[in-house]
Amino acid sequence: MKRRLPIGIQDFTKIREDVFFPDLNHLIDLTLDPRFADLCGLTQEEVEQNFTPEINGILEDTGKNREEYFSELKQYYNGYRFSKKQVSVYNPFGLLNHFDKEKRNIGEWLVNSDN
Fold first, then answer.
1. At what angle do helices 92-99 and 66-77 cross, to 10 degrees?
2. pLDDT tens-place string over residues 48-60
């Protein structure tokens, strides 16, 4: 029997360091610090700079224009914000799966995953 897990549930619960790590007393909570808002994902600029060949290949294969493609891509993979700073980041795992040639349809790997 295949087990299906819910997709898209995000739970960023702050844990108490003193309970799990009693010997660690010098931790700094970066969770909502605006200086680190883009630490846990890829910004729009990083995606455009580092995945140009993949993006151009997808545009050529699908016939979409750049604006249409990024609008759809953002809808699926660009929704994480870790501070009040107006920076949202792409989910790296989702993007890497999207850029995999076998899984190019946006969101397809989410639907067809055997997880």
1. 130
2. 999 999 999 999 9
